[in-house]
């Protein structure tokens, strides 16, 4: 049973994930996997060099993430080409990690990724959690965390589907516009209801009744 966890960039997915992890849930983190699949020696890095040129590497042969980010967040075509290189490999590793968790006897895992709705992956999952905050909060947190200018932060936000579209397909929403304590309390409640529902009915998805 895979439960998706998504939301816009800097909406608080990792913050929510860490709390689920502290409650014992295995969280599969797409950003972490995305870094692993482009390590030196991996075929995805060779494909990136072929597409973007050798200047996309640092002197030590690692991927220059700042340079690649500056290019792809300004250009939807380049973003699609990067996605075509990385997404199938990320999906493969996600499937491997979830299979390992199920083999350990864990009834459910969380898959934390920004693009679950954009790429339709949510349809394959049992249910979907969306982490939400206001556009102002999102912009402020993104600029503060990554040291981005307003324009660069907006370009990253605009490269993703608007939050409203993600909320339309959400089974559960976590409001992360307030204090960390407020968010943690919601995660505690959600954990309890998902875990109980899965053990009783085999699915976390809320019913209409
Ligand atoms: C472009 C890259 C090199 C920029 O690296 P950087 O270290 O600056 O950012 P990081 O990887 O930490 O990503 C931060 C956030 O950016 C957003 N983001 C990343 N890639 C994309 C994308 N292709 N489209 C929209 N948003 C994206 C996500 O919200 C992500 O959580 C990197 O994000 C990347 O390799 N992206 C392609 C893989 C991907 O799609 N990852 C998203 C999760 S599947
Ligand atoms: N409730 C909160 N109050 C204050 N700061 C917060 C709160 N939630 C998250 N933050 C901060 O906002 C920033 C973005 O949060 P986080 O990294 O969890 O977002 P994310 O959705 O995982 O981002 P990305 O899409 O880039 O992976 C971080 O610096 C985090 O510490």
UniProtKB/TrEMBL annotation:
Compartments it resides in: Cytoplasm
Catalytic activity: 3'-dephospho-CoA + ATP = ADP + CoA + H(+)
Associated pathway: Cofactor biosynthesis; coenzyme A biosynthesis; CoA from (R)-pantothenate: step 5/5
Known EC number: 2.7.1.24
UniProt keyword terms in alphabetical order: ATP-binding, Coenzyme A biosynthesis, Cytoplasm, Kinase, Nucleotide-binding, Transferase
GO molecular-function terms, A-Z: ATP binding; dephospho-CoA kinase activity
Similarity remark: Belongs to the CoaE family.
Protein name listed in UniProt: Dephospho-CoA kinase
Organism: Lujinxingia vulgaris
High-level lineage: Bacteria, Deltaproteobacteria, Bradymonadales, Lujinxingiaceae, Lujinxingia
């Amino acid at each position: 049973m895979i439960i998706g966890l998504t939301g816009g960039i800097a909406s608080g997915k990792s913050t929510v994930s860490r709390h689920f992890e502290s409650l014992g849930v295995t969280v599969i983190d797409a950003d972490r996997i995305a870094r692993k699949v482009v390590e030196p020696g991996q075929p995805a890095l060779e494909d990136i060099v072929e597409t973007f040129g050798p200047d996309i590497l640092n002197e030590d042969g690692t991927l220059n993430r700042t340079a690649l980010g500056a290019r792809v967040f300004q250009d939807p075509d380049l973003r699609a080409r990067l996605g075509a290189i990385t997404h199938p490999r990320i999906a493969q590793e996600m499937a491997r990690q979830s299979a390992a968790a199920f083999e350990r006897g864990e009834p459910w895992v969380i898959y934390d990724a920004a693009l679950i709705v954009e790429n339709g992956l949510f349809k394959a999952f049992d249910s979907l959690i969306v982490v939400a905050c206001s556009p102002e909060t999102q912009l402020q947190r993104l600029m503060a965390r990554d040291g981005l200018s307003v324009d660069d932060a907006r370009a990253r936000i605009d490269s993703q589907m608007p939050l409203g579209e993600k909320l339309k397909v959400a089974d559960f929403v976590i409001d992360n516009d307030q204090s960390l304590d407020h968010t943690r309390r919601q995660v505690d409640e959600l954990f309890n209801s998902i875990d109980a529902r899965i053990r009783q009915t085999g699915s976390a998805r809320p019913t209409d009744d």
